Amino acid sequence: MSSLILSSMGAGLCAGAIILFLSHIAPHFGAGNFVRDLDQPVLFGRHITKREAHFVGILVYLVLSLLFGGLYGFLVSLGILQSFHFLSIIGWSVILSLVYGGIVLPLEGHGLFGVKEDSWFPVDLFLSHLLWAGIFWWLMRLWLSFVV
């Protein structure tokens, strides 16, 4: 596996971890409204606690961030994407939002783009992934400048 793909996987994971941290502390400084999941969480047909469901959600988000970062680096290494340009990463984050909101969230029971939770959830989803794109771009530019 090339160092470009590993670097982009690391940048995607770090960007996801930063966004995850910010999303957990934001309600304490913002409007104070937490997304509350009122149904009983189920994983592979087995009832689990809300804490376990929260942990699985965190794990899914971090794995998805890692995979999308690595896939972007893979596409760059193949020459399909030119390089780590800001606008192409923004477009990539829109694709990430569509996959997360259109596939992952419905599988987790949150409805299409999270609208089961609240009407502003899709806006939050796209804004957080745009921030992911900014952090991913910054980390890749930083790490690529150290490559000899």
Please, could you describe this protein's structure?
The protein is mainly α. It has four helices and two strands; from the N terminus they run αββααα. It has helices spanning 3-29, 50-78, 86-108, 121-145; strands at 42-43, 46-47. Strands 1-2 form a two-stranded antiparallel sheet. A hairpin with a 2-residue loop joins β1 (42-43) and β2 (46-47). α1 crosses α4 (121-145). The model has no long low-confidence stretch (mean pLDDT 85).
Write the layout of secondary structure elements.
Elements (H helix, E strand, L loop, with lengths): L2 H27 L12 E2 L2 E2 L2 H29 L7 H23 L12 H25 L3
Antiparallel strand pairs: 1-2
Helix pairs in contact: 1-2, 1-4, 2-3, 3-4
Question: Short description, anyone?
Answer:
The protein is mostly helical. The protein is built from 4 helices and 2 strands; from the N terminus they run αββααα. Helix 1 packs across helix 4 (121-145).
